[in-house]
Amino acid sequence: MRPIKALSEQQTADLRAGRGMGLALAAELNGYPGPLHVLELADALGLSDQQRAKIQDLFAAMKAEAIPLGETLIAQEAGLDKQFADRTITPTILATSTHAIGATQAALRGAHLKYHLLTHDVLTSAQGQRYAELRGYQAGTPHGHGRH
Question: Which of 86, 87, 120, 130 is deepest in the core (most CB within 10 A)?
């Protein structure tokens, strides 16, 4: 008996908090770390004060972008759920609703991937390699990090 049958309580909380929920795995697993994990490993990565400040700014910007998209997605899923629950769904409403949900999901995923891309450019190649080691990713994976 959850409020929105298509979203678990954890998914709803993650969307409201701007968490990635695996949306950026394509980046993460190919050598493009996200700002949250870089901040969690800042000391072990030897981030400079300037790098740390830049990553903190990226993390804040990511949350500022992701949270409203998450709220929109929650509202859209609630609307779709209500249409089904009330037995008022039609093929036209279904098409419109799922198209809007898909667009929001794409925007949310794009936001998370974008900040992985931007975080990548802040790190040196050595920091990128160390990040992969600390996260337990396979050694020898190409990373091609940053401009440093």
Answer: 120
